[in-house]
């Protein structure tokens, strides 16, 4: 833990040297250092005690120093986290459904690199299940479920600290809203994650995204002008590689402009736990298991069988038939019997 | 009674989030009341009424709504106690980025949305920086990366706050928020003698007092001028 005493008497230059992420704190708090880099923090912040500056900035010296100490503590903890200390599995322990009956499973453990699908009608309780996972429920949510992380009671840090979100989400209606190029966008995200090799990460995400996208795009394309498929490809590649959240929740992946199989392979390859709410048979069969939700509770857990997996290639062939017809139609061609190929 | 102040820029989703949180309180059988503070107009009170909670609204008219808030918060608290509420929530439209309505001993929640742009956290003053809980809304329409960058910017200006994502439309996260807002051991009886977290500027200028004419000779009291010099002067 860094305390205010640890930093107060140091010069800003020394602090920046010791904590390379600290300039970001100065910038976000609109503290301009300019020529005063060699001043002691305490002296530099004296400007905030000046009546006029205090009114202008609405900041209080003591509060800024405290905030800074807290920020440094958090960032050091964040940087010190090892990959091994990460999340290897989550375990669901049963609660009750809307009628108060115990859920139909005993214990469900999902390991990293596994894909689990969630199926059930709208309003059946899919969102509540995901919310329980995100909140690391400890018998303290309406379903009374318990979620264990690595087999143990989850740390409450997952609940409310910005750098520790258990779940990253990808859903159909998400858009890019920033006015940035693909390059600037990934750069910004990488910087906020305090990544060291920013350039390397940008290249990696860019290549992976283009590998998933049907139509290629370049690094200087504005993100807001990417097509739906390209946007999703970039979101998935970025989340797989840059998001620190160990669990990725996907709410359907529309079958247009993106290679869904490769997308899932990428996420699994990055050692994520993948939860996917879907009713698309191809996606559902790509999962290792499916959780069936009914009346607010888990009704059944189905292991994807060998027979089902064998059907997958047939389903994919049918899907290709339709995709091909789309392409032919788009090019003004005629649809023929042999396009169906049965 | 518990007391919670909710503040945040206009249209950030305060009413939506409060309504979803009220749902959770009601399911637990808690009696909830809301006081809505605004400047000129609000119809949020109608929405709260529909949700079946006791409502009061106060319009500050010519005053800064946050100043108006502090002048009335004790009366509002007494009203809530008299009505037998378990929890009283105040919503105020953070129109003045300089002021904030937070009182030291009262849970302070700031609602801010993902669409407002990543430079917004640095532009909002004490309303964001001194909140206990920061709720980020509208995560459903932006990418995961944008949510992460936005949350990390919020964390940089207020590292001590609990940061939560709540969807004002679906209510995702609202149940969880409700558990942070109500504590049955807390009993607010009066705010007399309590202090604001951050002082509000008291400045009065000629225009506060009704002056409409432009020109230096009409300006009295606390007058401040833009520095029109080319180079910013350094102290
Ligand atoms: N998509 C989306 N819209 C939201 C969300 N929260 C609020 N809104 C919408 O944003 C608008 C402003 O919300 P409102 O609660 O009135 O904001 P207030 O002025 O801060 O009280 C409304 O149209 C809401 O439906 C959210 O999480 N997602
Ligand atoms: Mg409102
Ligand atoms: Zn004000
Ligand atoms: Zn004035």
Automatic annotation (TrEMBL), chain A:
<dbReference type="InterPro" id="IPR003593">
    <property type="entry name" value="AAA+_ATPase"/>
</dbReference>
<keyword id="KW-0813">Transport</keyword>
<dbReference type="InterPro" id="IPR017871">
    <property type="entry name" value="ABC_transporter-like_CS"/>
</dbReference>
<dbReference type="Pfam" id="PF00005">
    <property type="entry name" value="ABC_tran"/>
</dbReference>
<dbReference type="InterPro" id="IPR003439">
    <property type="entry name" value="ABC_transporter-like_ATP-bd"/>
</dbReference>
<dbReference type="GO" id="GO:0016887">
    <property type="term" value="F:ATP hydrolysis activity"/>
</dbReference>
<feature type="domain" description="ABC transporter">
    <location>
        <begin position="87"/>
        <end position="320"/>
    </location>
</feature>
<keyword id="KW-0067">ATP-binding</keyword>
<protein>
    <submittedName>
        <fullName>ABC transporter</fullName>
    </submittedName>
</protein>
<keyword id="KW-0547">Nucleotide-binding</keyword>
<dbReference type="GO" id="GO:0005524">
    <property type="term" value="F:ATP binding"/>
</dbReference>
<dbReference type="InterPro" id="IPR027417">
    <property type="entry name" value="P-loop_NTPase"/>
</dbReference>
<comment type="similarity">
    <text>Belongs to the ABC transporter superfamily.</text>
</comment>
UniProtKB/TrEMBL annotation, chain B:
<feature type="domain" description="CobW/HypB/UreG nucleotide-binding">
    <location>
        <begin position="4"/>
        <end position="164"/>
    </location>
</feature>
<dbReference type="GO" id="GO:0016151">
    <property type="term" value="F:nickel cation binding"/>
</dbReference>
<dbReference type="InterPro" id="IPR004392">
    <property type="entry name" value="Hyd_mat_HypB"/>
</dbReference>
<dbReference type="GO" id="GO:0003924">
    <property type="term" value="F:GTPase activity"/>
</dbReference>
<protein>
    <recommendedName>
        <fullName>CobW/HypB/UreG nucleotide-binding domain-containing protein</fullName>
    </recommendedName>
</protein>
<dbReference type="GO" id="GO:0008270">
    <property type="term" value="F:zinc ion binding"/>
</dbReference>
<dbReference type="Pfam" id="PF02492">
    <property type="entry name" value="cobW"/>
</dbReference>
<dbReference type="GO" id="GO:0051604">
    <property type="term" value="P:protein maturation"/>
</dbReference>
<dbReference type="InterPro" id="IPR027417">
    <property type="entry name" value="P-loop_NTPase"/>
</dbReference>
<dbReference type="InterPro" id="IPR003495">
    <property type="entry name" value="CobW/HypB/UreG_nucleotide-bd"/>
</dbReference>
């Amino acid at each position: 833990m860094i305390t205010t005493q640890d930093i107060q008497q140091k010069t800003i230059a020394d602090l920046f040297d010791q904590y390379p992420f600290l300039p970001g704190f100065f910038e976000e708090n609109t503290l301009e250092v300019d020529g005063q880099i060699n001043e002691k923090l305490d002296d530099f912040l004296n400007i905030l005690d000046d009546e006029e500056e205090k009114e202008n900035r609405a900041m209080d010296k003591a509060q800024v120093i405290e905030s800074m100490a807290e920020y440094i503590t958090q960032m050091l903890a964040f940087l010190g986290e090892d990959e091994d200390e990460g999340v290897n599995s989550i375990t669901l322990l049963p609660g009750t459904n809307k009628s108060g009956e115990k859920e139909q499973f005993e214990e469900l453990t999902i390991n990293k690199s596994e894909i689990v699908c969630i199926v059930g009608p709208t309003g059946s309780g899919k969102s509540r299940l995901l919310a329980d996972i995100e909140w690391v429920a400890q018998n303290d949510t309406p379903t009374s479920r318990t979620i264990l992380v690595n087999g143990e009671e989850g740390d409450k840090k997952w609940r409310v600290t910005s750098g520790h979100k258990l779940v990253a989400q990808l859903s159909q209606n998400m858009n890019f809203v920033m006015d940035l190029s693909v390059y600037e966008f990934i750069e910004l995200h990488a910087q906020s994650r305090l990544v060291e090799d920013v350039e390397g990460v940008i290249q990696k995400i860019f290549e992976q995204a283009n590998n998933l996208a049907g139509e290629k795009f370049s690094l200087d394309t504005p993100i807001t002008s990417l097509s739906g498929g390209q946007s999703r490809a970039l979101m998935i590649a970025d989340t797989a590689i840059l998001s620190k959240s160990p669990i990725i929740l996907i709410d359907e992946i529309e079958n247009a402009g993106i290679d869904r199989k490769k997308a899932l392979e990428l996420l699994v390859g990055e050692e994520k736990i993948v939860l996917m709410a879907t009713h698309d048979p191809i996606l559902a069969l790509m999962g290792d298991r499916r959780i069936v939700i009914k009346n607010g509770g888990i009704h059944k857990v189905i292991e994807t069988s060998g027979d089902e997996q064998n059907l997958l290639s047939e389903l994919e062939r049918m899907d290709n038939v339709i995709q091909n017809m789309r392409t032919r139609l788009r090019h003004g061609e005629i649809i023929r019997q042999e396009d169906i190929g049965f | 009674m518990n007391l919670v102040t909710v503040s945040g820029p206009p249209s950030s989703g305060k009413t939506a989030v409060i309504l979803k949180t009220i749902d959770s309180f009601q399911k637990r059988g808690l009696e909830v009341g809301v006081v809505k503070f605004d400047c000129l107009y609000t119809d949020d009170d109608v929405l709260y009424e529909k949700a079946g909670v006791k409502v009061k609204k106060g319009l500050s008219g010519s005053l800064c709504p946050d100043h108006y808030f502090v002048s009335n918060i004790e009366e509002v608290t007494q009203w809530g106690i008299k009505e037998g509420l378990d929890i009283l929530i105040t919503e105020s439209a953070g129109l003045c980025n300089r002021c904030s309505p937070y009182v030291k001993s009262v849970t302070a929640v700031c609602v801010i949305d993902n669409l407002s742009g990543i430079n917004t956290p640095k532009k909002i003053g004490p309303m964001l920086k001194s909140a206990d809980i920061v709720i980020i809304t509208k995560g459903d329409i932006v990418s995961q990366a944008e949510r992460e960058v936005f949350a990390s910017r919020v964390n940089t200006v207020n590292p001590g706050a609990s940061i939560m994502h709540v969807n004002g439309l679906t209510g995702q996260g609202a149940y969880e928020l409700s558990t942070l807002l109500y504590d049955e051991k807390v009993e607010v009886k009066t705010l007399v003698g309590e202090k604001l977290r951050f002082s509000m500027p008291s400045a009065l200028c000629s225009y506060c007092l009704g002056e409409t004419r432009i020109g230096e000779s009409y300006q009295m009291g606390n007058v401040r001028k833009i520095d029109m010099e080319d180079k910013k002067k350094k102290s």
